[in-house]
Amino acid sequence: MTTVIDGKAVAADIREQLTNSVETLSGEGETPTLATVLMGNDPASETYVSMKHRDCEELGIEARDVRIDGDAPADELFEAVENLNADPAVNGVLVQMPVPDHVDKQAVLQSIDPEKDVDGFHPENVGRLVAGDARYKPCTPHGIQKLFESIDLDPAGKDVVVVGRSDIVGKPMANLLIQKEDGGNATVTVCHSRTEDLAAKTQAADVVVAAAGVPELIDGSMLSEGVVVIDVGVNRVDADTEKGYELVGDVEYESAAEKASAITPVPGGVGPMTRAMLLYNTVKATSRQEGIPVDLP
Ligand SMILES: Nc1nc2c(c(=O)[nH]1)N[C@@H](CN(C=O)c1ccc(C(=O)N[C@@H](CCC(=O)O)C(=O)O)cc1)CN2
Question: In this structure, is residue 128 part of a structural domain?
Answer without folding.
Answer: no
